[in-house]
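To fix ideas, we quote verbatim one protein's residues and fold tokens.
>
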Amino acid sequence: MSTSTTEPVRDSESVRASEPARGSGDAPELTFDVLVIGWGKGGKTLAATLGGAGKRVGMVEQFDTMHGGTCINIGCVPTKTLVHDAEQRREDDDAQQFWARAVERRDTVVGKMRDVNHHMLADLDAVTLIDGRARFTAERTVQVNGGDDVLTASADVVIVNTGATPTRPDLPGIDSPRVHDSTSVQHVDPLPARLTVIGAGPIGLEFASMFAGYGADVTLVNRRERLLPDEDEDVAAEVTSVLEGDGIHVLHEASAVRIEDGAGSGNSTASEDSSASGSSSASENSSASAVVVLRVGSEERRIEADAILLATGRRPATDDLGLEQAGIDVDERGAIVVDEHLRTSAENVYAIGDVHGGSQQTYLSLDDFRIVLSQLQGDGERTTTDRVAVPTTTFLTPPLAAVGLTAGEALAAGRDVLVASQKTATIKAMPRPKAVGDPRGIVKFVVDARTDEILGARLFHVDAQEVINLVALAMRTGTTATQLKNGIWTHPASTESLNETLGKLEPLEG
């Protein structure tokens, strides 16, 4: 086992013992069978699997901030912990105290998972942990910098798993201390009475819903004509209705122009044409901290905010990796170019996870691990083309889960389509959402009229993040809509919606 806690070669007796070879310079030189750059889901699982099989594995990560990867530190786990706690808040709870307790619990959960992840690799004698930032100097060689210390690591096989980072638009005033990304806003203090979210993708929707739950008065800036433009209109309309019902002000066809200092203006409204109902629960006496200047249609509008969240997407984290030194090609967005086996343009260098672009999901990073492991220890047959019916969930309250085609996409593909769509509250054989006090949402299925094949589903209701996995499995295994409709499910459970909703399929005309 080898660990270094703050810098690559500080506290590094075991590093030197593991690999004593040195060059003519002062920097240690380490060699491995496999070098993994980045402790994300796919990277850590690959390192643990290969290390457990006796391969000499090096893992490079910046331990102080990302020990365990994005999902554990700043992504899926901490944000969904905050979402859960927001759903538990009652109207008479003090918003600031409740938020502070939620952040504390978030940090506790993250700390425990970081410790588990540390031991997952540190307890393997074949794995060497290297704390610092890596940069390629040759095809399978990197220089790792941590503070004033430097070392060089090379390997027969290199895995790039550096993830993605929030995009930061070129916007005047963006350096204001009131402007946050999806990482920093998780520790915003105090809880903002008025939050403006710029961007209405999954991250923007999740944080808007979550902060509204904590009592903030939220304005959501959407540059499109409606939310979820790639979804069917009825699904998007239901999501919009739920968000607005939670007090979120949704501005369509709106884009940020600049951010100004608004200190001392004294205006307590969230926007020129919206009330600040609910904001007093977050802060009774909040003066404006910043002003977001928007272009809404043909008009300019000014919105006062105590905090601003930039939710304008994430891009592959490839800056300053020295990829050109290794002959690793990237596309116009900076994503590493890979083939269906996740091989890069450099020999024996693979890229896994968000760094190669596409859908940014932890479970796809895990599947990337399976593909690369198939190359290194298996038959090499597994590829990205094997992926069928991959589900997604946006963790609103209630969650929105999706898999497969929308009705519009199915029609555009020339399919004869049957559709079943029901508001959650009207589904008689689905009592669980009513029992837990949130019957909002919609259930929608798209089915091939000729084959009874399930083409897609949109589930917007309590427990949707779980039920969607059953639907995805049915699609992957060829289970028909009729078989799913006639399934026997526990009661009361949200899964029971399948019995009733799939019994209401009707033809959809193009």
Confidence is low (pLDDT under 50) at residues 1-24, 265-281. The longest helix spans residues 95-122. Residues 7 and 146 are 4 Å apart (CA to CA).
